[in-house]
Amino acid sequence: TERPKATVNVQPAGHVFIRERVTLTCEIESGDDWNYEWYKNNNLLKDAQRKKYEISNVDQTHAGDYTCKGTQSTGRIYTHTSAAVTLTVSAVKVKPTITSNPEGAALTGNTVTLYCKLHQSAGWTFYWSKHTQSSEKETVTNVYTISSVSLSDGGQYRCRAGRGNPVYYTHYSDALWVNVTGE
């Protein structure tokens, strides 16, 4: 019979930052009662024998290629080794860039859209702040829309992104002025 296939899934992404939490999951397409083996750069990880391999405080020593395979308790059935998933760890916190449409001044009543650009896009929630407000607004996409803008919406805006639990935050973007003018 054909051996089952194993696949590694990584959360939040294959490219992470120091101090993030990473969870690797070994998915096996059929059967139960698997014993799991995890490998990093083809070396067996002796402390990892569960379906999920969690790194709670990732650092650069965790970077590498991860694979898994399973054997059933009888030892007679074993899976193919999974394809490798590469984990890249960056030491530098990223800083997003904030832009707006329209650029420059917006007329009252029109719509202003802010964009928080981040090169590492997987799994982020975006947080928006205005210099006169103490709380942040949260969006699941990198877009924040102010419909029917009024003069009070004018001011400095910044954004940042976060992901994971506990949340790992990027730096704040530089401030962007939103200028609102009357008609």
From TrEMBL:
Keyword Chaperone (UniProt): no
Gene Ontology cellular component annotations, sorted alphabetically: external side of plasma membrane
Pfam family, any one: Ig_3
Keyword Signal: yes
UniProtKB keywords: Disulfide bond, Signal
One GO biological process term: immune response
PROSITE patterns linked to this entry: IG_LIKE (PS50835)
Annotated TM spans: none
InterPro entries for this protein: Ig-like_dom, Ig-like_dom_sf, Ig-like_fold, Ig_Fc_receptor, Ig_sub, Ig_sub2
Protein name: Ig-like domain-containing protein
Species classification: Eukaryota, Metazoa, Chordata, Craniata, Vertebrata
